[in-house]
Write a structure and sequence with these properties.
The chain is of the alpha/beta class. About 45% of the residues lie in helices and about 15% in strands. The two termini are about 25 Å apart. The structure holds phenylalanine.
Length: about 325
């Protein structure tokens, strides 16, 4: 067993299966968002919590934060309508059991208002709205970090950090993907955008060409930006890729560690998601836990670019995948 603690319980009010997985507290208390989404079986939610919490340990270590990795997953059965408040109070009760070994935050399917409800049952919550004493929505900061990462990737791969005219496909226009669309449009990138939901109006508003998720995945672009759910890079999909590089905020983009090797063999530069996606976590914890000044927080966020650049250089110099370099750093962060 690799995880320190896994707690799954049926919510007293909602009846829904809630899992909190604490992967590691070696560096400090575990942090990681609360994901509320559909899974075919509750056990699929448990499995996802295990994977996502392990990724958070890496994310915190690479970001140099005194935190470990954890995650909450609420597995909503297909077609089930959620009593949101009941569910969030149940999540709060579950987190309260861990008595500070884990603190939650927003993730897929949750936002600041939800954090305020969870906070009615536990103090171990990041990203409540500013009006409720928290650091607020983290998705814009995650996007800022991704932009810094995209510049580092383009500098490394194409010799220029300038995003103007770069062909970029964004896969997923949710909270973070939507911010990225806006930021990349401002940078004058040439954009393709896709989502499983119909968000073509949003795409059009930023001058992006709307395509299907399949077409985004196999688009002939400079950079593919995965900004939806994980597991999209598989031996099958990697064979059909036509991008030169991949960097995005989706967690756990690889179906399995070995897929990093397949990307490398195809000459596709993959920026590990634990580095690229850390902006939201970095912002929230720098503000709420470390009480840093806005300038310090900003420097940390933009530091994602420098961290990634160093990882890409080390990988290139050693003939390694960036994923292998990241694994070494996580094993020995300092
Ligand atoms: N969802 C964020 C992530 O995957 C986690 C997060 C935790 C964000 C705490 C803000 C605060 O990195």
């Amino acid at each position: 067993m690799e995880h320190e603690l896994v707690l799954t319980q049926r919510g007293r009010r909602s009846g829904l299966p809630i899992t909190v997985a604490v992967h590691s507290t070696a560096r400090g208390p575990a942090a990681g968002g609360c994901r509320v989404t559909h899974y075919p079986q509750w056990r699929d939610g448990v499995a996802d919590a295990l994977r996502l919490s392990a990724a958070m340990t890496g994310k915190c270590a690479i970001a140099g934060l005194p935190l470990g990795g954890g995650k909450t997953v609420v597995a909503v059965p297909p077609g089930h309508t959620v009593d949101r408040r009941a569910l969030l109070l149940d999540v709060g009760d579950t987190i309260a059991v861990l008595d500070g070994r884990y603190a939650t935050g927003p993730d897929v399917g949750t936002g600041p208002d939800d954090m305020a409800v969870i906070a009615e049952r536990t103090t171990h919550v990041f990203c409540r709205p500013a009006s409720a004493g928290g650091s607020g929505d983290s998705s814009g900061h995650t996007a800022t970090g991704v932009l810094a990462a995209l510049r580092a990737v383009c500098e490394h791969r194409f010799g220029s950090a300038d995003l103007a005219g770069r062909r970029v496909a964004i896969l997923g226009l949710g909270r973070v993907g939507g911010h990225l669309l806006r930021l990349l449009a401002t940078e004058k990138a040439q954009l393709l955008a896709a989502d499983v939901e119909d968000r073509r109006a949003l795409a059009a508003a930023h001058g992006a060409t709307w395509v299907s998720p399949q077409d985004a995945l196999s688009a002939d672009v400079d950079v593919l930006v995965p900004a939806a759910l994980g597991g999209l890079l598989t031996p099958h999909t990697v064979a059909g890729l036509r991008c030169a590089a991949i960097a995005g905020p989706a967690n756990n983009q690889l179906d399995a560690p070995a897929t990093a090797g397949l990307l490398h063999e195809r000459g596709i530069l993959w920026a590990p998601d634990v580095v690229v996606s850390a902006g939201g976590l970095i912002h929230a914890t720098a503000v709420e836990l470390l009480h840093e000044t806005p300038a310090q927080v900003d420097a940390r966020l933009h530091g994602i670019g420098a961290t990634l650049a160093a990882i890409l250089r080390t990988a290139a110099a050693g003939g390694l995948t960036p994923a292998a370099v990241v694994d070494r750093l996580i094993a020995r962060p300092d």
